[in-house]
Write a structure and sequence with these properties.
The chain has one helix and 15 strands, in the order αβββββββββββββββ. The protein is mostly beta strands. The strands form four sheets. Strands 1-2-3-4 form a four-stranded antiparallel sheet, with no helix packed on it. The protein has a four-stranded antiparallel sheet with strand order 5-6-7-8, with no helix packed on it. It has a four-stranded antiparallel sheet with strand order 9-10-11-12, with no helix packed on it. The longest helix has 5 residues.
């Protein structure tokens, strides 16, 4: 049953585009990931062009472009509590970016724990930790403040690379998806 608080189909059919903003390079178009910093109304996009772009929706202006990755950005997530943005890339790295008062972001940590493309970044409910999932068939659990990998988990029998990951809202379980269409549910404490 569709909840009555959701917009009905006829209302969705009347939606129109109110603006369009080309944020990434046109010679390598494509946005692979998007996240919204709800309290600041900032949109972050990760692109095929190797850049993460932070866009201020109310002003319609690009705040900054993060250019340190060498391959496409496959996943990104805000950590609003500490004004952080986490990016994962096909270059096998994960970066934690610190927001500054002027709206710019600087790279605070670079993690190189994966042996293949990082496909997913997910932030723990506490906003003190995050996890990444990779095509190398491992997922890593990180401390945000230090950038250290607290554990890296892989399965001896698992040859399928991970393509997605998400924490349950309570942070006690982690779901991962594989390139073969298998979903795995993990107890975060026991891995």
């Amino acid at each position: 049953q569709v909840p009555p608080s959701l917009a009905p189909i006829d209302a969705l059919e009347r939606y129109t585009q109110i603006s369009s903003h080309p944020l990434h390079k046109t010679n390598k178009p494509g946005i692979l990931s998007i996240d919204i910093h709800h309290s600041k109304d900032i949109i972050a996009t990760g692109g095929i062009d190797t850049n993460a772009v932070l866009f201020d929706r109310p002003s319609g202006q690009v705040l900054c472009t993060l250019t340190d990755h060498s391959k496409k950005i496959t996943s990104l997530k805000f950590v609003p509590r500490d004004e952080l943005l986490i990016t994962g890339s096909a270059d096998k790295t994960v970066r934690v970016w610190q927001g500054n008062e002027d709206g710019s972001y600087g790279c605070r940590h670079t993690m190189r724990d994966h042996g293949a493309e990082v496909e997913a970044v997910t932030v723990h409910a506490s906003q003190k930790y995050f996890a990444t999932a990779s095509r190398d068939s491992t997922w890593c659990f990180y401390d945000i403040s230090t950038g250290s990998c607290l554990t890296q988990v892989g399965e001896a029998s698992g040859q399928d690379g991970y393509t997605s990951a998400a924490f349950h809202p309570d942070g006690l379980i982690l779901g991962t998806g594989t390139s073969e269409g298998v979903i795995k549910i993990w107890d975060v404490k026991s891995q």
